């Protein structure tokens, strides 16, 4: 799957799925635009990209900030003149429940990154993607398809909404030759737990892996390979679809966080 001279924006590229995708795209010849908030982590991933391909354009930005989102697109166009692929991967979870008294705060913070930023970046990138007949890959979660655990309500809502946005965007942009697809991972070994303090809920990768039928968590590279496939010409007939890679999590999920 060659992406030679393709310009690929990856948000949340400082670690996990986003980092793995950035490295794989670079290895396949893409001119990668890495977006993230942690400069130190971005720099380390950028070094990996450069070792396997071209040095990426690194943009330190917060996708919840409207000015930063605009800057992502502006800097990409100023540097490369086009956009071929947009990977909306950045995400977070702020835990709260209805009776906790602060669910609106958690909802606003979660939706700002997991949905609003995706809508905003898609709207700004779409005119450029129309020119290149490019495509978009949105990283969702099986959480959007499951009844939420008590404190996960904002996160599950955001991913369910993201799935609907993916389908709506795919339908609108199809006539312009732009494909839009989603990927819904189950548990993946990343630093998402550390970043979102999931450990406080009594969760670990061991407990997450044991909660699904295949008794394992995915590695970021597994999801990254699926991103590259959907972004490639091999998937030229696929749009508006949601690809689940969850080790059987939707079949049976036995997790019981405290």
UniProtKB/TrEMBL annotation:
<dbReference type="InterPro" id="IPR002347">
    <property type="entry name" value="SDR_fam"/>
</dbReference>
<protein>
    <submittedName>
        <fullName>Uncharacterized oxidoreductase SSP0419-like</fullName>
    </submittedName>
</protein>
<dbReference type="Pfam" id="PF13561">
    <property type="entry name" value="adh_short_C2"/>
</dbReference>
<dbReference type="InterPro" id="IPR036291">
    <property type="entry name" value="NAD(P)-bd_dom_sf"/>
</dbReference>
<dbReference type="GO" id="GO:0016491">
    <property type="term" value="F:oxidoreductase activity"/>
</dbReference>
<dbReference type="InterPro" id="IPR057326">
    <property type="entry name" value="KR_dom"/>
</dbReference>
<dbReference type="GO" id="GO:0006629">
    <property type="term" value="P:lipid metabolic process"/>
</dbReference>
<feature type="domain" description="Ketoreductase">
    <location>
        <begin position="6"/>
        <end position="192"/>
    </location>
</feature>
<keyword id="KW-0560">Oxidoreductase</keyword>
<dbReference type="InterPro" id="IPR020904">
    <property type="entry name" value="Sc_DH/Rdtase_CS"/>
</dbReference>
